[in-house]
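Hello again,

I reread your note about wanting to compare the complex against the isolated chains. To keep things tidy I'm splitting this into two emails, and this first one only covers the full assembly. Below are the input lines as submitted, including protein chains and any nucleic acid or small-molecule components. They are followed by the predicted structure of everything together. The single-chain runs will come separately.
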Amino acid sequence: MIKITDLHKTFNAGTANEVYSLRGVSLEIAEGEFVTVIGTNGSGKSTLLNAVAGTFLPDSGRVEIAGVDVTRQWDFQRAKLISRVFQNPFAGTAPDMTIAENLHLAYLRGKPKYPKTELKTSRRGKYRDEIGQLEMQLEDRMDNVIGTLSGGQRQALTLLMAVINPPQVLLLDEHTAALDPKSAAQVIRLTKKFIERGRLTSLMVTHSMSQALELGTRTIMMNKGRIIDDISKAEKQRLTTNDLLDKFAELRKTERLTDEMLEELRRDYI
Amino acid sequence: MELWIGALNLGFLYAFMTMGVFITFRIHDFPDITVDGSFVLGAAVAGVLLVHGVNPITSLLVAFLAGAASGMITAVIHNRLNVNGLLAGIIVMTGLYSINLHIMGRSNIPLINQVTLMSYIDRVNPGLTPEIWMCLTLGGATILFGLIMAWFFKTNLGLAMRMTGNNPIMAAATGVNVDRMKILGVALANGLTGLSGGLVAQYQGFADIGMGIGTVVIGLAAVIIGESVLRMRSIYAKVFSAIVGSLIFRLMIAVALAVGMDPTDLKLLTAAFVLLTLAASKATAGKKAFKTALSHFWSKSAWNGRKVSVAVCLVLVLTVAGWGYKRYHGSPAAGPNKLYKIGVVQLLDNPLLNMTRDGFLAEMKKMGYESGKNCVMLEENAHGDMSTVNNVLDKFKQQQVDLIFPVSTACTQAAISKFKDRPVVFAGVASPFIIGAGQSDTDHLPNVTGVYGGAPAQKMMDIVHRFKSGQFKIGTIWDPSQANSVFNVGQLQDIVKGDSDVTFIGTTVTNSAEVSQAATSLVHKGLDVFTLVPDNIVYSAFESVLKAARSKNIPIFISDVERLTDGAFCAIGYDYTSVGNQAAHLVDRIIKGEKPQDIPFEKNKKLTFGFNLDTAKELGLTIPPDLLAQANVIVDRKAEATAKAGHPTAAAPTSTPSSGQAASALPPAADKVTPAADKPPEKRLVVFIFSETPPIMDTRKGVLEELTTSGVLKKYNISVDDKSAQAEFYLAQSIASDIMRLNYDYVITLSTPALQIMAQANKRIPHIFGGVTDPYRMGIAKTPEDHLPNITGVATMHPVSATIKAIREILPQAKIIGTVWNPSEATAEACTYAARDAVKQYGFQLVETNISQVNDIAEALNALVRKKVDALFTSGDNSINLAVDFVGKIMKQHKIPYFTTIPTDAGRGAALLSIGADYVEVGRETARQAILVITGQDPKNVPIKNYVPEKMVVNAALAREYGLTIPDSILRQAAEVRR
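Full-complex prediction:
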């Protein structure tokens, strides 16, 4: 479903702030796979996700989605194939528009927007049912603007909006990191539910070691713009969070990880 | 009633623009200034199409498309070129100004005789009062449009557009091309603005280049006011808040007018109103905690905010009402009387328009009409705002004014399109025919008459021909957005076309800052005569024209007599006061029962005509006696000054014609009137120095001493001014141009840079220089006799060779002499060249270091010290002169003897020995040269004097410190020995 070949990207090339973010990433994800991505800060996890989404164009390499070469396509062009949930709960919704209007636009993802009114009673009924799945009593607030909702509610809605019109690929960028633990758990539960129900090909960046192990069919580990480990589902079931940390310790031995980064990993993941 | 209905109508028409601003400002979060231009664009396009007989509805459609195109350009500049949105709007708005002028072909298109949307609406009137019918239809159309807009924002496309403005990241994630959506939105907004412009033009009866100024501010104010009054989240409410805001804004102006508030304060009121509504909505938003407590009263918390807003509006209106009450109450307009009411309206406070208005009022009074007794005069001023003129006229309607007296073309145009049922008497209009008031003097709109006339171009040209013969070029400068100016220029061009000897060249300007450049360019094109037609901008920047004209001795002919005293050569124009008088008589006839229909338009009868004799003298022009006899204004400052002193001169009798205007046009007595009777007229001399270094100050002292003691200052009644450039070149440049501007009689410059800069600026004032090493290298002169005609002076070479010789005598063993100089200084260069020759003669080696400023000196000296120089020699360098004490100190530390060519350097202990010119003596000699010129010699015939009063000073104390013995031969020569 996703095929990434030798992808390179340098930001601010030629300036003091030059960052070589992707250093030849190759990755193939089959249809229906749910891949979690872990790694230290600045390892290139989010950049990889954005490369798939098309927020920037890579310096070299190739991105294919569902057999289509999308390397030179912008994000709004790829929106036909991809939907996204961002880390910031405010980034995924339009705050001054109502819940129904937001859902409707999400439903229109990748389709041309003509000047015709489609948000009618029948359609609203459908959206109402969908909102019901969130179990947040938002069904009666369809005409409230999103700006009045809490972060957890907004993120749950963003997730619903991402799957309301099932995408070929779902990208989740640490989408629970900014939530309180209770909301985070609720959003994770919904994530699992939606992905399993739609058998969606998904790529999820996470900062939680246990999330990485618990969710998905495969885990990849990134460091310094490269994929340094690829753990299959069978292997994942055997591993504990400590094993993962040991893996990092192993990296340290081969000098691919500094003490500082190890410390950071401990802080982040435990 | 009319006032309020009129305000509502304007409110509805402007609402289209407000909706546009709402789209950019609220939907796209993009403050778009393009609307200032696209509003006029719409008016221009619709106006031109209507004149060509296109259906009004079609013209509005094209106006919409044109506006949309301009918005598209702004958005593309913003997106594709990544230019800040505000800046992109400013760029397009600026460009549109020229494009709009091109579309219209002139600054103003009258639509009074065209079939407009309004005439359509009138035609289908089912029998209601026209104003009310207009209001109903316009209101209906606007509300319908508002509904369509709101519906649009509910469609898929509209929702996507709202999302683009609200959250662009998310919009892109759902597959919306954010850039394209922004282009669409800004295009839509400007399309609506263009539509609004087209509508307003049709409503007020003309399109004008100036009608768009401040559109964006009105739009923003209306959006903000509307939002705070109608605070609901629904998109319907939001779109309608823009319409409501527009209505409130117009009504506010109507209120201000109704209570008699000065329109000058309208802008301030707007600002206060917007600020207060913003503050009120902020305050209520912060009090959300109270909303539950208050919910017993109001079911929705939104009412809370609305209540506050409404209260704020009320308080404001009441305050204004209270403020204006006195004037309103005191005005007879409020009383139920049957007096004849005359409404006087002018576009702006301009001295010429004021003269016409005052002339009118004065003549009315003379004929026995007194406001409050047997008639009512209502005076209004729109302060340059076109839409305020409309409000003023509505107010006149409301007050049942019997007759309208508009001053200026723009006011007349608005008045004749608004009033069909009562007399309009205009004045201050160049041509009533171009604005559709009539076809000829007798065949005109039945309710309109007045006084008109442009500048008397033919008469002006006749006079120009008396002074210029053969082929010559005349030229003028004008603002193409002023209808009067364009008309007058057209007349002038027509006359020149039939005149094979004369070529017309012209330049247009858009603001007063451009006038200087325009005038200079005309002068460069070889202009022979300036023939300035009436133009507010050019007249306000007259000084700039004068400056350019003076540089090439070009006479200025102008139509405004007031400018004669400022230096114009000849003025011929109509008399603004008498225009008002003439119009008063027309009004009198109408009041006495005549119908305007039967009163032909009158041309301005009275001309004023005059010369400035001082300018004539300056330009070397002689005025034929017959012309002089015709003139009713003569400006002659010098004659006047002497006349006041009791010595009538030959020039005095020529200024005998002293009509009322002539007296008022004459300047107040010249500033510097000689108090004593026997003294010749005062002359002015300026001493200009470049920097305040010791030698220059000494020279200056010598100059002033000699000038004073010789008695010429008293004898020739000369005042002396002092100028110093503080060693700054830019300052020196300004001083030089200032000297030219103030037209001094004599200039004395001391120092080389002062001479160079002054010589560049001045080709006529007698100029005497001093304190200069070598005027021959600078192109001032080839030989002492062969020099620039207005410049002479004293050249003082530094005694470089004598100084080097002295070094040899004091230091027989020395081999290396070091020197420091600034290669950009002409004098330093000359001295160094002289030193290079001298060292060879006396068997030294010269080591040079260069500096470019005072701060470099320390480093340069260190370099020389490292090279083990036996002595240091400096000469003629200003940077070193400024820091000579510092140089002396460093040399003392290293025990290196220091020699200079300025005597005071040794005297003050900086140098061991100095041989130089006695600069006080040089100054005296310079003054003596100046005296030759003052007593009547032509500078051309005064040769430059090469004069070096050598003076040696030895500092024996310093020599002792160094362990040197000064030979007796030297000590004998020294004028001064410091022990």
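For quick reference: The interface with chain B takes residues 53, 55, 74-77, 79-80, 83-84, 86, 91-97, 101-102, 104-106, 108-111, 113-119, 145 of chain A (CB under 8 Å).

B.
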